[in-house]
Each structure stands twice: as C-alpha cells, then as structure tokens.
Design goal:
globular, about 30% strand, single chain, alpha+beta, about 775 residues, five-stranded mixed sheet
Length: about 775
C-alpha cells in the first residue's frame, strides 16, 4: 500500500524531460545557423536608461543657505533615487537608472532635484522628458553624451541650477546595464542589498601545488639529552597542516626524504611555517626549532627537473620572566621547496572538470574555440521563502567554466524570472563541462540580520562541450532537479542557449590524442589520497577567496557548483554505479548469450553462416582485423541515424533518485560525523555490514580463482601439477608438428559442435581447474 502511494505521489517522467525551444533570439536577425546581432543568444529586452551625472549652482534651501541635494527619477509608479550629499551645491552622482520598457505605463519621465530635510524634502527643480522624443541607442554605437538641462519648478518656469543628464532607450547589451539601478528591484533598499543583486564576473584565484621535500636536519638540541629523540617535521600553510613520519634515525641529525604537498593561491598571503618537533611523550611534543618561509620568493618548477635544495636556519624561543626570548643556535633543516607549475590543481570533480590546463601560463596551448552561453529565463520556480505571509523567490544564476565564474542579476519576487544575459569563455579542451546553477538570494530585505544567511539552491545543469556540434545554437529548457530528504523534486526549468564555436577543427581533433591532464600528472603522479586531500584544500581556498569578493559569491554557492561532498557514501549512488557497470557489461553478456545460441544451434542457418565465416577467417587470418574494424565501422554508420540531437541532462532513473528508499536518502543527507540517533545508526551499520559481507564474498571468490591459476605450477597439489606439466609437454609437441590453422579449425568446430554431441556435465578442463587448491584453507 505504501509503495502504491509513493508511486502515485511521484511526478510523471515527462516532467523531468529536456525540451527543445525556439525563442526569438537577438531580435530575430538570423543568417543560416549563426545570428548577427550583439547579444545574439538571448532575447532582446528594451530599457529606458537615465544617467544622472551631476548638478551645478543649486540654490540653498536651509537657513544656513546650503542644500543637501539628491535626484529622484520617476517614471509612472517607479521611482529611483541617488545618494544625497551634505551641504554641496555642485554634487556629482554619475548613477544610472534602468526602467523596463515592458512595464512603462507613463508617457513622461521626471528627474527631480530635492533638498533632503528632516521633516519634508524641499523641491529645488526638475526636468521633464517626453518619452516619444527619447533617442534609441544600439551598441556598438558610442555612448550618448550627457547634456546640461536648466531646472524648472512645478509651473514650468526656469529656476536657478542645472542638471546634467543622458536619457536613451537601449537593450541589456548596453554597457550601463550591469551597474544600473533596475526598476525590477525597486523594493530593494540599501547599498549592500543593491550590490547583492547586480550581475558580476569573478575569477578563481590562481592555484599552485606547493611541494616541500624534507630531506634532513642537523645539530638539533633536544631538552632531554639522555634519550633518543623521536623527531618529525610539521608544516603549516594557512589552514593546511602536514606532518612527516617520525625519523627512523633517532639522532640529533635525523633524515626523512619525504614530500609534503599543499595548495597555495596567488596572491600569496600566508608563509610556509615549519617546525621540527620531538615526541617526548604520547601526547606531548617539544618544538626543537621553527622557521617561516614566504611563498612569493620560492622557485617555480615547470617540468620534472629537480630544483636546488637549501639549508634553512631553525629558530627557537623560550619564556624568560614572562617574555619571549630567541635562542641563537646552529640547528638547520635541509629542504627542497618549489611551486609546481606543471600540474593542474584539481578543484572540481574529475568527472565534471571545466579546465585541465597546468598552472604555469607558459605551458598553455592556444585556445581551440569559444563557448557562448545565453541565460534566457526560468519558469515554474518553486517558492523558496516566505515574505509578508506568501511564498516568494529572488532567483539568480551562477555559471562556471574554467577560472571564470559569472553571476546574473537577481530578479526580485518572480517565479518566471527573465535574465537574458550572455557570456563568453575561451575553450582550451572540448572534453570539459560548463555548470549552470540557479539560487535564491537570501541576502535582501535584511536577510542576514534575520538569520537567513545562506542562499538556497534551486538546481543546476551540466553541459559537456564534446557532446555539442560546433557552430550550432542549442536552445533548450532544462529541468532543475534537486534531491531532497523526501525524494527528487523538480524546482522549475531554466531556459539556456548554448553555442560552441571551433576556431580550428584540426586543433580540436588533435586534442583527442593528447593526455587529459598535464604531463607532470603522469611523470610524477600524485597518490589518490594526496589528490583527494589537495582537492578538498583547493575548494576551500576557492570558496574563501570568492566569498571575500564584492558582492560575495557565497560559500554554499561555490561548494554546490564544485560538487563538494559528492564523494561521501550514498546507498543510492552505490546502486546507481552498480547498475551502470551492469549496463556496460550488458553488451558483453548479450554477445555471450548470442554465442551460446549459436553453439546450441537455435537458428541453424545463422550457425552454418558462422561456421563458414569462421573457416574463412582461419584459412585467411589476415582478414580477421579488417573484418572486425569494418564491422565496427558499419555499426557506427548505422547508429548515426539515431545519434543524440540534444545535450544530455540529469537522468533521475540512471541516478536511482526516483526509486530511492526514504531511509537511504536520510542517510545521504546525514552530517559527517553522524547526527542521527544511535538505533538508526546501528541499523545502517548492520545494513552496511551486510552489503560489505557480499562484496567480501565476491572478492574472496575472485582471489580463489587467481590462486587456483597460480597453483597450476606451484606443486601445492603434486598430482594436479604433474598432470598439467605433462599436458603442457604433449601440447607443445603436438602444436609444433601440427599447423596452427588446423588446430584453430579443430578447436572452433569442437566449440560450435551440434547439441547432439554435447553433454550437460561440465567439461574436463573446468573440472580439473575447480579441483585445484587455493589458499582459503589457510584463512582464519
């Protein structure tokens, strides 16, 4: 009954499908597959722009003869104001206001200069524009020059003072658009809140791997000279801490020759701090010396050639009468330290990497093309928070490709936001992924003060560039799917236009023959453990630096875009990966079943044809490889008719998101370490033990088969090994005197023999193999 109810509550599969669209891009100027206007991957949005530059000779309105001026720009029900100045008759604002043409209901624009007062603001003067006379500007036209306008009173008579303005109609392609005050955000007040809703471009910090090769130390002075010191080196860079093992040579001249790896970001703000410590007790370490090394002066290595090693002096401080006092002594540490420019610092999951270039710019290859992304709109968004007793969403998008992050402006209080913003990236490798995420801005209307300090995730889309045809504009509406503790949920749809333009087809084809990562990853590979640790440190550094930008790209946004936490245990993901493996092996299983049908003569005509093909290939072995490759070629040509026409998108069935048990999802959303009650943890632990027991059995069976293979010649079973050795001798003599084609022909005909000549019992070789001993007898 429960399963039937959950099936009825599950959304229909078509809700999660990708939909191709035909939007009116770039004002409809289309030539072939390419569009010719600026911002050609988005729909044009018309705006009325008002640039308030400055004013002069404003009259005083206070008793003191001064004024505190500001400008109010009013269009119908929409009103925007500049900041005000204290006691200034010649103020400069240089602020831009943008009013959406779709919402204009007035025929006049009014720019009013007012004097800010405690009780009521006084009118200084105003300028009125008839919208029918406002010029239209389309980039790449030069910006419209502002002009001086004499102020008038409410009766239309000239008064003292002038205001410099520029008024024009334009689109979102205008240079003034990103920094403008938008009438859509009229309800947002405050400088910080306005900064939080504007579109911005961010760059990830330049990341380096820092390699510290600790070789040895000399002339250490331990406090207790009557014991053998247990010395290790601790290295710190920012929040990263690494330790060497305790030196095997327990002397005052210990040796390690051990590599410690860190992630460092430009500009280098924190030094490398090294301390040599002696483990005098299980939980007590004594510092024998320490040194601090600024990173900006370190050698940079671009290939596998080693850098020169150096000796560094160790310093030690002691407390004398409550004050720190430095002890001068001759202890030194020998190290080889360098910044690795030949690696790519992995800050994303390797499955969704958007950049694979090495750190050093000198090693970069020329770009192979350009990626253009138009973020059009979203539809059907869910309410993410409550305001004034009703649900609301203030949505914005973030896209990441390579080191460049973009953030669209926030559309206030809309479940169908229209952004229509276009961005461009250079592409250096086609086998990369662009990620687009949609978020709800929780930092407006005093969100931080009210405790709403985290932007909520609405969903994200990944697009792999290698799945796109070059020079084609893809316009699709992607479902925004998010996994919640109560199941997968569609949060809306995002409408994107994507175009991948290739500058050189030959260079792009050549990329497929090159290694995926820079060559240092293969010449001096890092261990899996090192890569996991370094990736974690890199994501922390990137999120910390972007959080410090203005406006900030917040930690929860960066971590969601970088898939932080995707490596954590999940029963749902484990099932999905198991069935992915089964899907890959299903082709081999199908071939095996087909061959079994051939051997059993289910279809005699097919079996006879296979016999003939086999005899031809045995008699003419030079045809084997050409036949295989010709067969693969024909399959590829045949499948071309059914090639994918749309980019791939999130698949709930492949992810097992639509069939996951509620407890499995609750486990996936659990914190680390766990925060669930002990009885639930015990149940999940027992379930994990059960699964691990099955895996253990399978691994043991594989080991048994391998050990049986080894025991053929190990004389563990002397009779079995003697039989096998004798068989090998007879086989060598027979194969020497018999042509190989005859042997192959006889073996093939024997395998394909008619069922009348078969037995249901296992074959002799299989019986012999299963009787061989394994090391399971020695297992406890």
């Amino acid at each position: 009954m429960c399963s039937r109810a959950s099936m009825m509550q599950r959304p229909p599969p078509e809700d999660f499908s990708l939909k191709e669209t035909r939007p009116h891009l770039g004002g409809g100027k289309v030539t072939g597959d390419k569009l010719t206007s600026t911002y050609d991957l988005v729909e044009q949005m018309q705006y009325l722009y008002v640039r308030v530059v400055k004013a002069k000779e404003l009259p005083g309105k206070d008793l003191t003869g001064s004024c505190d001026p500001y400008v109010e720009v009013k269009l119908g029900n929409y009103k925007g104001t500049t900041r005000h100045f204290e006691k200034k008759s010649n103020p400069e604002w240089n602020q831009v206001f943008a009013f959406s043409k779709d919402r204009i209901q007035a025929s006049f624009l009014e720019a009013t200069v007012k004097d800010k007062d405690v009780v009521k603001d006084d009118l200084i003067g105003r300028v009125v524009f008839d919208l029918s006379e406002v010029p239209k500007r389309v980039p790449p036209d030069s910006p419209l020059a502002p002009q001086w306008y004499r102020l008038e009173d409410r009766k239309g008579e000239k008064v003292k003072g002038e205001l410099m303005l520029a008024v024009w109609f334009g689109t979102q392609a205008d240079e003034a658009f990103p920094e403008a005050w938008h009438s859509d955000a009229a309800t947002v007040s405050g400088t910080d809140a306005l900064a939080n809703i504007r579109s911005k471009v961010y760059l990830s910090p330049k990341l380096w791997y820092l390699r510290v090769n600790v070789i040895e130390a000399q002339d250490l002075i331990p406090t207790d000279k009557g014991r053998y010191p247990e010395v290790y080196v601790k290295a710190i860079v920012g929040n990263q801490v690494q330790r060497t093992r305790v030196s095997q040579s327990r002397t005052i001249n210990p040796m390690w020759n051990e590599d410690l790896m860190f992630v460092a970001a430009e500009p280098f703000e924190e030094p490398l701090i090294l301390s040599v410590e002696d483990r005098v007790a299980p939980n007590k370490d004594e510092v024998l010396g320490r040194c601090a090394i600024p990173l900006q002066y370190l050698d940079k290595r671009f290939d596998h050639r080693p850098v020169n090693s150096k000796w560094f002096n160790l310093e030690k401080h002691i407390m004398v009468e409550g004050e720190k006092k430095e002890i001068k002594f001759a202890s030194k540490i020998h190290m080889r330290i360098c910044l690795e420019g030949g690696y790519h610092v992995l800050d994303e999951s390797t499955h969704y990497s958007s950049d694979l270039r090495p750190t050093a710019k000198q090693l970069w290859k020329p770009n192979i093309g350009v990626l253009e992304l138009g973020i059009l709109n979203a539809t059907g968004l869910m309410p993410m928070k409550a305001k004034d007793g009703r649900g609301t969403t203030d949505a914005y998008c973030v896209a990441k490709y390579g080191q460049k992050w973009i953030r669209t402006r926030t559309i206030i209080d809309s479940f169908t936001p229209r952004w229509n913003e276009q961005y461009t990236w250079e592409v250096f490798d086609p086998c990369t992924v662009v990620t687009v995420g949609v978020f709800d801005n929780c930092h407006l209307h005093g969100g931080e003060k009210n405790g709403g300090g985290k932007d909520s995730r609405i969903g994200k889309v990944r697009i792999r560039l290698s799945t796109l045809e070059t020079d084609r504009v893809y316009t699709h509406s992607y479902p925004l799917l998010v996994l919640h503790p109560n199941g997968v949920k569609k949060m809306g749809e995002i409408h994107l236009a994507v175009r991948f333009t290739c500058s050189s087809l030959l260079n792009m084809m050549h990329m497929y023959s090159l290694p995926l990562l820079p060559k240092m990853h293969y010449i001096h590979p890092l261990t899996v453990g090192q890569l996991d640790n370094l990736r974690h440190q890199a994501t922390q550094i990137v999120s910390m630096r972007l959080t410090r930008a203005e406006p900030p790209l917040r930690k929860e946004v960066v971590e969601y875009m970088l898939d932080v936490g995707s490596h954590m245990w999940s029963m749902r993901r484990s099932k999905a990966n198991f069935f992915r493996i089964m899907g890959v092996l299903s082709g081999l299983i199908a071939v095996g079943k087909w061959f079994e049908q051939i051997c059993n003569w289910k279809n005699p005509i097919t079996t006879v044809l296979i016999h003939l093909l086999f005899i031809i290939l045995v008699l003419y072995p030079e045809l084997i490889l050409p036949t295989i490759f010709l067969y693969l070629f024909l399959i590829g040509v045949w499948y071309y008719r059914w090639r994918p026409r749309h980019p791939p998108h999130m698949d709930t069935r492949l992810s097992h998101a639509d069939s996951a048990h509620p407890d499995e999802l609750d486990e996936e959303f659990d914190t680390f370490p766990t925060s669930r009650p002990s009885d639930i943890v015990r149940m999940r632990y027992d379930r994990l033990r059960s699964i691990a027991g099955r895996i253990q059995t399978v691994v043991g069976d594989l080991a048994t088969q391998g050990e049986r293979l080894q025991s053929l010649l190990s004389w563990r079973d002397p009779r079995a090994t003697a039989l096998f050795v004798l068989f090998c001798l007879i086989a060598a003599v027979v194969l020497y005197v018999t042509p190989f084609q005859v042997v192959a022909l006889l073996v093939g005909i024997y395998v394909l023999r008619h069922p009348r000549f078969r037995y249901r019992l296992p074959s002799v070789p299989l019986n012999f193999f299963r009787r061989l001993p394994a090391r399971t007898d020695c297992m406890l």
